[in-house]
Design a protein that fits this description.
This protein is mostly helical. It has 4 helices and no strands.
């Protein structure tokens, strides 16, 4: 039917009749559903409408609990991430200090030591350190000779304690045990 034209009364009557039929069909369908619900309730003792409402409440409660659980998981995840990030930042900071700041501090301490101690004192300290090194070597060698003297003639394969040279290294010419020492003579 085009716009602006006068509606045909027969068409309108037909439209109203179709609407009445649709309403009658819907009413019959609803009545049938109501009867079926009543029969199910009388047979099982369970009202389907109440059961659907109970299931709906249960689903809403499950959804609420799931949301709470998701929130808890997000909080836990956030805490774990914060700890992980903090740990990584601490490690990076340690590396930065080790690589960047420690050499600067070492250099400044060396400069301050040079400034605080006169050159003659530094030479004296070095000389004393050299003497201490030689004393340690001599002490080791005296202990090694004493330990080697205690080895009996029947213990030919007992290892000898090495004698150190002035540089602190063991002598290359010392045999490893008594049998090697006797073989030298």
């Amino acid at each position: 039917m085009p716009l602006g034209s006068v509606p045909d009364p027969a068409y309108i009557a037909q439209l109203i009749a179709n609407m009445r039929d649709t309403v009658l069909t819907l009413t019959q369908t609803f009545d049938s559903l109501h009867d079926q619900n009543a029969r199910v309730a009388s047979i099982t003792g369970i009202d389907p409408v109440q059961q659907v409402k109970a299931m709906q409440k249960e689903l809403v409660e499950l959804d609420r609990k799931q949301e709470e659980h998701i929130i808890e998981l997000k909080v836990m995840l956030r805490e774990v991430l914060v700890q992980k990030i903090a740990s990584q930042l601490r490690e990076r900071l340690r590396e930065f200090v080790k690589e960047q700041i420690a050499p600067v501090i070492k250099k400044r301490v060396a400069e301050e030591l040079k400034a605080q101690f006169p050159p003659g004192l530094r030479e004296q300290v070095q000389a004393h350190n050299d003497q201490l090194h030689l004393v340690r070597i001599n002490l080791h060698n005296a202990e090694a000779r004493r330990a080697n003297r205690l080895i009996k003639a029947n213990q030919l394969h007992e290892p000898l304690t090495p004698i150190l040279k002035d540089d602190g290294e063991p002598s290359l010419y010392q045999p490893p045990h008594l049998s090697g020492l006797f073989a030298m003579s």
